[in-house]
Specification:
This protein has 6 helices and 11 strands.
Length: about 260
Amino acid sequence: MRSVSGDKLLQAADPSPVRIINPAGASSFLLLGDHAGNAVPHKLEALGLPPVELARHIGWDIGIGGLGPLLARALDAPFVRQTYSRLVVDCNRAIEAADAMPPVSDGTVVPGNAGLTPDDRAARIAEIHAPYQATIAELLAARDAVGLRTVLVSLHSFTPVMQGHTRPWDVGVLYDGGDTRFATAVLTALQGRGDLVVGDNEPYRMDLIDYTIPRHAYPARPYVEFEIRQDLIADEAGQRRWARIVEAVCREALAAIEP
């Protein structure tokens, strides 16, 4: 594995670390995809992993890259999606977090994350993590400047089985600090459907391990983080079904909290 110390990480052949789909979306929603992509910069040589590993849940949030654009159209909302695998750098982690560039993920050793130098880490942060977070901040500032209310909707997916444990939920609603009214209204709307197994801060509890929502929503901006079971959105039919579900509950929740 070649070191990238003292050199640019991303080259001309590498895609941009962040894309905005439907940037002119004018509704109250801003959609986020921290783990929507699983690309790896050419210089990192696939992190020493075969394609099958990068395609697993350790490499990205399966289904979110397809779900996000569908929701962007349905909700008339921008979708900010991160391009690179969370194994390169996890944009939903603080830069100093141990699992921001994990040497092992769900039992898989990541050769390209072994023995990283400070320069190696700094390149991934400067060229991938920082531009993604800056794009979100700039969009929020622009929307605030014209008086456009913004509710942050973070889209994630989770594996049905983790470390041998089956997860029974179809979808989880994550929230913690700040203004939780929208998130709890989404939870109520999902539970009210009666046809879904809904997790309240499951399969993960939102806390300060999460980075994007706490950074951009706290203390007063409404938000929600969805965790959708990945097998339910692994294909286009599932993504379309869940786009309809998420659109409906987001609209219902927004109406519930509007003065």
